[in-house]
Design brief:
The complex is a heterodimer.
Chain A lengths: L28 H5 L4 H29 L10 H20 L2 H14 L8 H24 L12 H5 L4 H28 L12 H33 L12 H35 L6 H14 L15 H29 L8 H24 L1 H7 L3 H31 L5 H28 L13 H31 L39 H14 L1
Chain B lengths: L1 H12 L6 E8 L2 E5 L5 E3 L1 E5 L3 E8 L4 E5 L4 E5 L5 E6 L4 E7 L12 E6 L1 H11 L5 H11 L24 E3 L5 E3 L2 H9 L22 H12 L4 H10 L26
Helix pairs in contact in B: 3-5, 4-5
Classes of the chains: A mainly alpha, B alpha+beta.
Amino acid sequence: MSEATVVSLPDQSTARIPKMNFITKENGLLSWLLTGDHKRIATLYLVSITFFFFIGASLAALIRLELLTPQTSLMAADTYNKVFTMHGVIMVFLFLVPSVPATIGNFVIPMMVGAKDLALPKINLLSWYLYVIAGIMVIYTMAAGGVDTGWTFTTPLSTHYLNTHVITTGLAIFVAGFSSIFTGLNFIVTIHKMRCPGMTWFRLPLFVWSTYAASLLMVLGTPVLAITLVLVVLERLFHIGVFDPAFGGDPLLFQHLFWFYSHPAVYIMILPGMAVISEVVSTFSRKRVFGYTAVAFSSVAIAIFAFFVWAHHMFIMGISNYASLVFSLLTMLVAVPSAIKIFNWTFTMYKGSITFETPMLYAIGFMGLFTIGGLTGVFLGSTGTDIHLTETYFIVAHFHFVMVGGMLMAFLSGIHFWWPKWTGRMYPEKISQFAAVTTFIGFNFTFFPQFILGMLGMPRRYAAYPPEFQALNVFSTAGATILGVGYMLPLLYLTWSLKFGKIAGNNPWQATGLEWQTQSPPLTENFVETPIMDHEAYDYEWLEQQQQKEVASV
Amino acid sequence: MFVWGSLLYFRIYTPPANAMNIYVVGKQWMWKVEHPGGQHEINALHVPTGRPIQLTIISQDVFHSFSIPAFRVKREAIPGRFTSVWFQATMPGTYHLFCTQYCGTNHSQMIGDVVVMTPDDYKKWLRESTSGESLAQDGERLFASLSCNACHNTRPDARGPNLANVYNSQLTLTSGLAITADDAFLREAILNPSQHITQGYAPIMPTYQGQISEEGVIALVEYIKNLNSDYRIQQTLNTTDIVPENEGKAAPTTPAPAGQKEVKP
């Protein structure tokens, strides 16, 4: 690490956390539980999401432990099935989907557009309550014996052949779906209607563009999942015969409906991650994001393409060969906007004054891992190779490279980036850099062997596997241990920094977003007076002039 | 890359005309393989080298997926629908056979071996493991015992269409739809006949949904596929009374029941 840094903290001997801020405004549990303040709701989300992340992560640890040996040595096959199902359900619906939008997005979007709050604060609170209800239902399911359908709920397995708690899980996801619809709706309205004077669409930070695209997906895609799950529940209860061939239904119909949501869902998960990266890369390269409009429209393009690629999950399921042909082509087109982003971020870094604070380390990790994740997606999008690779560990590795290597890295990057704004205090830099590198190394050790396992043909969701696959599985489990350390560290030192972190001041990163031009932690109303946007986004010269003016006036 | 991938895809899912057809039924939690010569296997598949093998796959309960990683083939086994895939083995040996679609408790036990043999060894294996009756003969017995031949006989006043040479022929349904009578159509026509009435016939055929197992349907389909003359059906009619002892009687016209070498669709 070079000694160069952009961090500019106020003099620690005189600096104070502002007395009046959104955390100190009101006290008591009720003031939190009945709040309409987007920053408090974001905090509630942050706590609950972290809770579910660690449940999901412990389940992942159990999976890796079981796979240490080829036999079912740690748990019975049934238990294993439940564990990986709950891992999937919790991580996808209770962590990845709401992670960046509902926490970081909730916290920064109103400030970025220069507004006092989201357009519909009560709906925002409602969506958190829905999330909590969904979470409680999932925990109930786990306590009551779990569910073993896989997070994909494949019919007719889920409708007729299992006796586990499919209904409560299905309804939990149904409720969580509404939580995400409301969040998306809120963002769309806010971004359309609440921008401050001078904040045109093309002056919005790219975070807002990306989250906007994700919100569109939430609002348009999630209802389809809701309908599908209701149909699964009805089919289980009343045998209405939509999906089960024994009652005249079509099991492939479920696949179509499910993936019509669940493919866009992975973009719901990754777009907000990309949103974070745009901000972080620009800030720590001291440069405007290269090709602002291209990056902005690539987000929208991803959102649009997302709806026309779902059948690539079904290439081997006997859909017409010609349908596969079309969906394969469309799938490969999605690579274009994703590549635009990666190239533009790289060009942003090119000849920039790069410094390697923790958020930047995570962001660089994201760019590397997401690129691998994205490129392996092309192998799966290509029909011929998909036949061999699908339903093996190759899929598992690909999905985790995009979701964990991409999204989780972006989430951690964003948390570290906005932590000073959120709490008014800095996280400890050295140990967090260490954690970022540990995560990166652990991640590669865990998931890279799984690409090879997939190439060799090891099927996924196997509690027991042929012994020749053991070596690579041991590798993967060892990596997961390192990864576990990488995730525990931030939990510990971020908690520590709440009390002992250095005072951050308004703008420790010298970033340009409107959220950095107000105090940290912000006032409940965000700004003292409504800001006026008189410059382009990522205008570092403007920022310098501002500071010179301040110095002059002092 | 797209073109290359798509070419591969079309090749893997378009079996050549001279492929040897083997039926595979997936059920919780095993693979049941039915050879046309009447050999049945569980969680194993014996094939010769140097011949294209077409697998016609169906599931009896939930989604399964039939995967042989070494041959780069994989196809979903879907309840209520035939799917197919083909390959040609080149090296004798034993290879993994997996179920790759999560199918419940013992998903990871639903594995087996693909045994690839030289053509000579394969012939020997076929001889040694035959159940004594070809798949078509099984079908013939079912055809008789379910009284299919009460209507599907060759008489001029028959209530059902003549099934000789029906396989792969063009049919026009009462709905006006023109359709090719392939495996999938035959299966549907047995299980859900009222939707598949050939023009000119009354919708009187009862459904056999739930009365025949998937293996039974496969046997019937295989039997119908091999009906190539009216004479063949009459012979079935004649054997109706002596069903239990009909082994060998239909031999002259049942394709290669003894050698089991080859069954031409």
